[in-house]
Design a protein that fits this description.
The complex is a heterodimer. By secondary structure, chain A is mainly alpha-helical. Chain A contains eleven helices and two strands; from the N terminus they run ααααββααααααα. A two-stranded antiparallel sheet of chain B has the order 1-2. Classes of the chains: A mainly alpha, B mainly alpha.
């Protein structure tokens, strides 16, 4: 249960990225997978070769994945948006595979681990907790709190919500949709990068790191309500706990399948997800 | 090689029914392909069914899976179908790697029977199988041409262009969508079953998401909405993949991993380029005109 909540909190980070991009740009941007991988590797490089500690490396993961996200969106996906959300989604899948192979080209297929100090597990009321887990959790919470403060209190954050809510009205009020699109790509993919790195801190990373969790990310976003940022958090916690509880009855490898059946279940009963599609 | 082109052609035809005609997307093509391959392999090996039964059962099973997915997302935007099909292909792979009692896990299933394997020389077997695949391809192609020019195909195109108008015109849109998805899934399953009987060995790693990209690339390059385009595109893609194999062999100083990465990158990049610069493909779709009956 505790593990599930921790996993869910970390999962919430890329899920917010995915759902925020969906809210503004109105297409499922599957490149979340490859940007999570890019972020994980960017963090890996500064962590192992420059010796940066995990929080600094996570910040680097955010910036690098965010910049890559803006670049890829500008160059590849934006020109395709007029041809429809589904065409863009197809291109996003192709782009994911292309980017993944860029990472593979540079780093190869081997599993890589971060260079972290080793701590002894803490035992609280008979539950074992790893300090690294706590640190990951803290970083995920900080990232999410940052996003919420940004959306709630800054002018640009409000502009982003306005575009997600009603693009036409927002443009009448003089909000530049292009800028907002770039911004949401940066923040969304940056969060994907942070998510990829946080997931990697627990285990190890390889070029498929992002693709492996993508189903849980989708599940979190759909369960909470596609396009809703608080929904992504609720969805991620639900999926995290469900995956953890499923270990009681299923083999660990079926974690991803839990996400899939979660999607099927929610779509059948409550297609708009727990919190509906409103962005914020 | 041509056999693979034929199988890819089959899958492209299957995708064309939903993406080209009804405007629905399936990003987990490889999941249906794998599902079909496993169903047929298991039925022939474990239950001792003849190959024809296995292949037909594979088509039926994948059709049912397709219906389930189309049903859950029928009332929602196409994005959900995209997510759910992508998820399906992952689940198929995870299940295939872990249900060891059934699928032998990541070791895969070997010794899948093929028609006349063992009795014929390998060359004769390959030739026979090529003929078989071509025959199935022609059959499915003719069927799909029939669908395309029939009132049924017209309704599907109407749904693609505007499903509300089609609904107002009294067409049961959801029913049509589900049927189209079932047909498409069945064709994918059929292709998968034929694949298994051809190579005699299937394993979860055989069914990479990249295969879905091949097929979408084949259809888009050839011409979406067009059965000729689907087949031509599949030929092109196989030819293109083989040529990248030769080209990357020429690149000096690369690790095998890097060579593979370059090839996969090329496939992804070329799909993006085709979507961007040649979205209608080599043979653009022509809307068939009604002929006046004489």
């Amino acid at each position: 249960m505790v593990n599930g909540l921790v996993a869910g909190t970390i999962l919430a980070v890329p899920a917010i990225g995915f759902t925020a991009i969906y809210a503004v740009l109105r297409f499922p941007n599957f490149t979340v997978a490859s940007h999570a991988t890019i972020g994980a590797f960017a963090g890996y490089v500064v962590n192992t070769s420059l010796g940066w500690p995990a929080p600094g490396a996570v910040a680097v993961a955010f910036v690098v994945a965010g910049l890559a996200g803006v670049l890829n969106d500008e160059v590849v996906l934006k020109p395709l948006r007029p041809s429809g959300a589904l065409t863009t989604a197809i291109a996003a899948i192709a782009l994911t595979i292309a980017l993944e192979n860029v990472v593979r080209f540079i780093f190869g297929n081997d599993l890589r681990g971060y260079d972290l100090p080793i701590h002894r597990d803490w035992v609280v009321h008979g539950v074992r907790i790893g300090p690294q887990q706590v640190q990951n959790l803290a970083m995920a919470v900080v990232a999410m709190a940052g996003v919420f403060l940004f959306l709630a209190f800054t002018r640009t954050g409000k502009a982003m919500r306005a575009v997600a809510d009603n693009p036409m009205l927002a443009s009448i009020k003089g909000i530049n949709a292009e800028t907002v699109a770039r911004l949401v790509s940066f923040v969304g993919m940056g969060l994907a990068g942070v998510g990829g790195m946080l997931l990697g801190l627990d285990t190890s990373i390889d070029p498929l790191t992002g693709f492996r969790v993508i189903l849980s990310v989708f599940a979190a976003a759909v369960v909470g309500g596609l396009g809703s940022i608080p929904g992504a958090v609720v969805g991620a916690l639900t999926v995290g706990v469900a995956e953890e509880l499923s270990l009681l009855v299923l083999a660990p490898a079926y974690r991803t399948a839990v996400g899939f059946f979660g999607i099927l279940f929610v779509l059948t009963l409550r297609p708009r997800g727990i919190l509906g599609e409103r962005a914020f | 090689m041509l056999t693979f082109a034929g199988l890819y052609g089959l899958m492209a035809l299957g995708l064309n029914v939903i993406w080209g005609m009804a405007g629905m997307i399936n990003l987990g093509l490889v999941g249906f392909f794998a599902f079909g391959a496993y169903v047929s392999a298991l039925l022939t090996l474990q239950a001792g069914a003849p190959m024809a039964v296995g292949v037909l059962a594979a088509a039926a099973f994948t059709a049912v899976a397709g219906v389930a997915m189309a049903l859950t997302t029928a009332r929602l935007r196409g994005d959900y179908l995209a997510i759910i099909t992508l998820g399906f292909s992952e689940v198929v792979r995870v299940t295939a790697s872990n249900e060891i009692w059934l699928t032998n896990g990541t070791d895969g299933i070997s010794g899948i029977p093929g028609p006349g394997r063992g009795r014929l020389t390998p060359e004769a077997f390959n030739l026979l199988y090529l003929l078989l695949v071509v025959a199935v391809l022609v059959l499915v192609f003719l069927l799909m041409q029939r669908v395309r020019y029939s009132p049924y195909g017209r309704v599907l195109r109407a749904i693609r262009d505007d499903d509300q108008v089609a609904g107002v015109a009294g067409k049961p849109v959801i029913g049509f969508k589900i049927e189209a998805f079932a047909v498409s899934a069945a064709i994918l399953g059929l292709a998968g079953a034929l694949y298994g009987h051809y190579t005699s060995y299937i394993a979860p790693e055989t069914f990479q998401p990249l295969i879905s990209i091949y097929i979408v690339l084949a259809l888009t390059a050839g011409g979406t909405g067009n059965n000729w385009g689907a087949v031509l595109g599949a030929l092109l893609v196989v030819f293109f993949m083989e040529s990248t194999r030769f080209v990357t062999a020429w690149l000096p100083g690369l690790q095998p991993v890097q060579v593979a990465a370059v090839r996969e990158f090329t496939i992804g990049a070329s799909l993006i380029l085709v979507l961007r610069f040649r979205p209608k493909g080599l043979i653009p779709e022509r809307i068939p005109r009604m002929e006046i009956p004489r």
